[in-house]
Amino acid sequence: MKGNGMREIIDRPSPNFDERKLPVSMIVVHYTETKTCEQALRILCDPAAEKRVSSHWVVDRDGTVYRLVDESKRAWHAGRSFWDGIEDCNSASIGIELVNDGTEAYPEPQIAALVALCSGIKSRHAIRHIVGHSDIAPGRKRDPGPLFPWERLGCRRVSVNI
Ligand SMILES: [Zn+2]
After folding, report:
1. Residue 6: which pLDDT band, with cuts at 50, 70 and 90?
2. Residues designated as active site
3. What is the whole-number distance in angstroms between the Cα of residue 124 and the centre of ligand 1?
4. What's the pTM value of the predicted model, to 2 decimals?
């Protein structure tokens, strides 16, 4: 799976997942709030953390894509959240973490890789919404933040025709 704006996919399996209880209908975009990609990968793959977390995908600043959790499984990225009648957003979503400390602009290679990744996800699942963590957990979460270029994904909070 190379090309289409994606630089490379690296498997970095996380033990932090369980079974889905709902079909996949949404993509949730996050930022990692870390300085480095390695810090984020360590947190998202840590089985011993007090609060175990994960995402399906991590996209580094240079466009390198890491696969942590199989898309058929339920990753743990949304936390307490609500969207479109769904309370268990983890069960209904694919989670993507963008390496970003929360204050910086998103580099073009990273956004190009994200766009390619999302189009692949849309080809595999009936995605109805692409939202930010801050959309599904307002007041609690700020990511992916005001610098995230939503227009590049061509949609937000709207149905996506596949
Ligand atoms: Zn988040």
Report:
1. low
2. 97
3. 23
4. 0.93
Q: How far is the CA of 51 from the centre of ligand 1 (A)?
A: 14
Just give the CATH number of 8-153.
Answer: 3.40.80.10
Give 65-101 pLDDT, tens digit per residue: 999 999 999 999 999 999 999 999 999 999 999 999 9
Residue ranges per domain, the chain? 8-153
Q: b/e string for 70-108 if b means 16 or more Cβ within 10 A?
A: eeeebbbbbeebebeebeebbbbbbbbbbbbeeeeebbe
pLDDT tens-digit map of 94-104: 999 999 999 99
Distance (Å) from CA 77 to ligand 1 centroid: 6
